[in-house]
Specification:
The complex is a heterodimer of chains A (about 260) and B (about 230).
Chain A (H helix, E strand, L loop, with lengths): L1 H26 L35 E6 L3 E6 L2 E8 L10 E9 L5 E6 L8 E5 L3 E7 L1 E6 L4 E6 L2 E11 L8 E10 L9 E8 L11 E5 L9 E4 L3 E3 L1 H10 L5 E4 L1
Parallel strand pairs in A: 8-16, 10-14, 13-15
Antiparallel strand pairs in A: 1-4, 1-7, 2-3, 4-5, 5-6, 8-9, 9-10, 10-15, 11-12, 11-16, 12-13
Chain B lengths: L5 H4 L4 H8 L5 H5 L8 H5 L13 H25 L4 H25 L8 E2 L8 H23 L5 H25 L14 H11 L2 E2 L5 E2 L8
Antiparallel strand pairs in B: 1-2
Helix pairs in contact in B: 2-5, 5-6, 5-7, 6-8, 7-8
Classes of the chains: A mainly beta (about 260), B mainly alpha (about 230).
Chain lengths: ~260, ~230
């Protein structure tokens, strides 16, 4: 019994001594040896400071759009239903056609479809487009809000206003359509004092001017008659002073959702 | 499917211009395949100084790595946003996506104004299908491991090499993780072969994932309703 205790005490002492010795080796301050271990040079500092990985935050202000890669019909349901629109790959202005993406779903055969806001009449039409008819997804954080009663256009980024201007809107007989749309393209360096220096094309179309050239799309553009702004002055387009449209041109990317109310 | 050469990958010339601005390599030489240049850019950018050395440009190599990191970060981030993945694949996309975004941030930070621009991507539905996602993730991670290995002997500055190696091993862990999730053996070979920039570019081109920027701006006189 006594001999067993003595042996155990010896083992404990031996372990404690070993641990202390190990710690001493680890902690021994040997500055002259710090740069070299066993004759090897110290590792260099990496050229990069890689930050800690951060989770992807949910962003309620993100909107997604995609280019139409091949002509396609838009249906009222994924893979079935009636045709609600036809999509071409180019706009009447010669730019890539695009749609605003809302959500995605699979049909009964497992094919992926995308619900998109469409540039067709009646305004506000949404339809399901085959995923493989579209290109890559692109994101915007901006949103243009046009108030027809107050004659204002406000651009928001991440939900905060970053631009505001007075505008001219459609006359009562050619009203600017209300609803949710998106910016389809941006035209610059053309020769027209009527449209000002820059024009955005939207997915909104005039329901009154259906025989207008190039399908009667509603634009957001400058003007040669700034004295008429604000007011009901146009055929449906949203006009703003040239200095305002030039500034908006720097702030608003194509694909931006537009709300007209 | 697009046929993308390195010219397309560097569509706006940002990578080539970065090397050219350094005054150490002509655009023709750069696009001809030589990742040429010197290491002065990082010092100019006010970042950590990297010893100057002749020969291949570490800046160009870092930009090459950045482009691959852009590709990976965009892939995982889009998969996260699509919310089409489930179970362990979704968890892996969350973790790996965050890491790849951190890699992008690190490269952009050290390269400053010399950082290559982010290309446009079209992942062609692979972020919206579990099986296609995992298959593509395995390919991407294997590709990244081979790409870092392929440039290791070309990097001149030890600090840049240390950085590349620290990321290389992380990419290898990702590769093993994605292989496990996809149901293939993570490590069966005794040696991994490096791949050159040309080999990597050829593989990336074949996917069609890097696309041209959409043409959404024109100069035709508007015919909107006015």
């Amino acid at each position: 019994m006594t001999g067993g205790r003595t042996r155990r005490a010896g083992v404990v002492l031996a372990l404690a001594g070993g641990a202390l010795g190990f710690l001493a080796v680890l902690l021994w301050p040997a500055p002259e040896l710090a740069p070299r271990v066993g004759g090897l040079p110290a590792s260099p500092d990496p050229a990069l400071d890689v930050p800690a990985p951060a989770p992807l935050e949910r962003d309620p202000h993100l909107a997604m759009w995609s280019v139409v890669e091949r002509p396609a019909s838009a249906l009222s349901a994924p893979g079935r239903g009636r045709r609600v629109g036809r999509l071409r790959t180019r706009t009447p202005e010669g730019t890539d056609n695009l749609v605003l993406v809302r959500r995605r779903a699979r049909d009964a055969r497992g094919r992926v479809w995308v619900e998109a806001r469409l540039p067709v009449l009646p305004n506000g039409t949404v339809g399901w487009v085959p995923r493989d008819a579209l290109g890559g997804y692109r994101l915007v954080r901006t949103h243009l809000v046009v108030n027809l009663r107050r004659f204002t256009a406000t651009l928001e980024r991440d939900g905060q206003p970053v631009f505001r201007a007075r505008v001219g809107v459609g006359l009562p007989r050619w009203p600017t359509p209300r609803g949710r749309f998106y910016i389809r393209n941006k035209l610059v360096r053309y020769r027209s004092t009527f449209y000002g220096p820059l024009a955005f094309g939207t997915s909104a179309r005039s329901a009154a001017l259906t025989d207008w050239p190039d399908s009667g799309f509603v634009g957001v553009h400058g003007t040669g008659r700034p004295e008429l702004i604000p007011g009901r002055i146009s055929h449906g387009c949203i006009r703003m002073r040239n200095r305002d449209i030039a500034r908006l041109g720097r702030l608003m990317p194509v694909g931006t959702p537009v709300t007209i109310r | 499917m697009h046929d993308i050469s390195f010219d397309h990958l560097d569509a706006d010339g940002a990578i080539a211009e970065a090397a050219e601005r350094a005054g150490v390599v002509s655009r023709a030489t750069f696009l001809g395949g030589a990742l040429g240049g010197s290491l002065t850019l990082l010092g100019v950018a006010g970042e950590r100084a990297i010893a100057q050395a002749p020969g291949p440009s570490d800046v160009a190599i870092l930009n090459y790595a950045l482009t691959l990191e852009y590709l990976q970060a965009a892939f995982y981030t889009e998969a996260q946003r699509m919310k089409a993945l489930r179970g362990r694949a979704a968890e892996a996309a969350d973790v790996v996506g965050a890491v790849e975004r951190a890699h992008v941030a690190a490269f952009r930070d050290v390269l400053g104004s010399k950082a290559a621009s982010r290309p446009s991507f079209d992942f062609q539905g692979t972020t919206e299908d579990q099986n296609a996602f995992l298959k593509t993730a395995v390919a991407f991670e294997d590709l990244a491991v081979a790409a870092y290995k392929g440039q290791a002997t070309r990097i001149k500055a030890s600090s840049a090499l240390a950085a590349a190696l620290s990321i290389h091993s992380v990419e290898a862990r990702h590769a093993a993780w994605m292989r496990y999730l996809f149901g293939v053996q993570p490590a069966t070979r005794a040696f991994d072969e490096p791949q050159s920039k040309q080999q990597i570019t050829r593989v990336v081109n074949s996917t069609g994932f890097i696309t041209n920027t959409p043409s959404t701006q024109g100069s035709r006189t508007p015919r909107y309703t006015g």
